[in-house]
Request: fold
Amino acid sequence: MTRFLLRRLPSVTLVLLATTVIAFLLPRLAPGDPASVVAGPGATTQQIDAIRAVMGLNRPLVEQYLHWLGGLVTGDLGESYQFHRPVSELIGDRLESTVELTIAAALVMIVVGIGLGVFAGSARSRLSRFTADATNTVLLAMPPFLAGLLLVILLGVTFRVLPISGETSVLDDPVIGLQYLILPAVALAVPMSGGIAMLVQSSMDNAWRQDYVDLAVAKGVGRRRITLRHVVRNSLGPAMVAIGIRFGDMLAGAVVIEMIFARNGLGQLAVSGVQGSDYNVVQVLIVGAVVIAVVVQLLTEIAMATLDPRVRLGV
Reply:
């Protein structure tokens, strides 16, 4: 396993380094000037230039990048131009909301995706197979914002079963917190569940054609036992990799979902940072999202390497 991790280390390092460069340049390519935002609408050119000098924005880009990267490595995330608070404090205030949403959505995605995929892959009748295929197609074609709007209209406005905006921490009040969490978590997860389900279904279709399944059938092993012990077990590997990839997509989708359901999470902070040309906030959020996605993907590959020696040995 150590050798496997050492093989992955150079590529992970390059990805993270490239991410810091992209995260640094993207906000500066967008319209807007943080010095103008801080100075206000009535500021003169001289005042704006003076603020830019204080903020260090008049220095060469390479110098600005190295200064920011050094702070990032040492844990100094800088200060928000817009909120006049350390970026670490802003992220700390809103992190719990996004973590709750992402974990809940990931659980829904795994349960729905794998469950629907197993149902489709083990379906024997044409009607069951058609129903599963149609459901997968609908889920795969539905973006998170559309799923969110449909859930708001159906369960929030029409039937008024669940709240459609705001939030309560699950740690403070689990019952109320879950009520506020269900709709955004389902809206974020369900569209991504279709891809997981189709991958599991395809892997199971392939597994049913393998020799070990024919051997089990020849020995008189029941279909249910073959499905659970052989087909499903050997079909979950690709799904695990896909779940790790979808986790990164989920972080991006959380921005839209938090806006729809008025959750005060990192998505809302990212939108505020972009609108206010708050470089430090936007840069840290981009890097943080990529780091989380890379770590989850790496953990997924470790799990795959543990289950399948061929992955670990690079065969």
